[in-house]
Write a structure and sequence with these properties.
This protein is mainly β. It is built from no helices and eleven strands. Strands 2, 4, 5, 6, 9, 10 and 11 form a seven-stranded mixed beta sheet that branches. A four-stranded antiparallel beta sheet has the order 1-3-8-7, with no helix packed on it. Strand 5 and strand 6 form a beta hairpin. The radius of gyration is 13 Å and the shape is globular. It starts with a strand and ends with a strand.
Length: 126
């Protein structure tokens, strides 16, 4: 059974940075496209970023482009989300997700992902 465990959330002032990590256990990490999603209170879960199984391609929601960077280390079974220039509207619970893929592909749809972490809170104060 695949398990995903996120870490790195917290409270930061606007303009600050946070780095999230997510470790996958139970299966071969390199077989999975990985994604980050977020959910603010009263809102639907939103796609943030994704990275292919081999790390060659990434894709971001427009609001994250130029500020967030998704990366992965297959040897450590870990995906990262580096968040810079944070804004109060980035406040949400951030979730990592894994999608088993037979070839490198970009996956942005919430329903396409197979496994989810428990989430980590990110709060950006103004």
């Amino acid at each position: 059974q695949v398990q995903l465990v996120e870490s790195g959330g917290g409270l930061v002032q606007a303009g600050g940075s946070l780095s999230l990590s997510c470790v996958l256990s139970g299966r071969s990490f390199s077989a999975y496209a990985m994604g980050w999603f977020r959910q603010a209170p009263g809102k639907e879960r939103e796609f943030v970023a994704t990275i292919t199984r081999n790390g060659d391609s990434t894709y971001y929601v427009d609001s994250a482009k130029g500020r967030f960077t998704i990366s992965r280390n297959n040897a450590k079974s870990t995906v990262y989300l580096q968040m810079n220039s944070l804004k109060p509207e980035d406040t949400a619970v951030y979730y990592c997700a894994a999608k088993l893929t037979v070839a490198p592909r970009i996956v942005t749809t919430y329903s396409a992902y197979d496994y989810w972490g428990q989430g980590t809170q990110v709060t950006v104060s103004s």
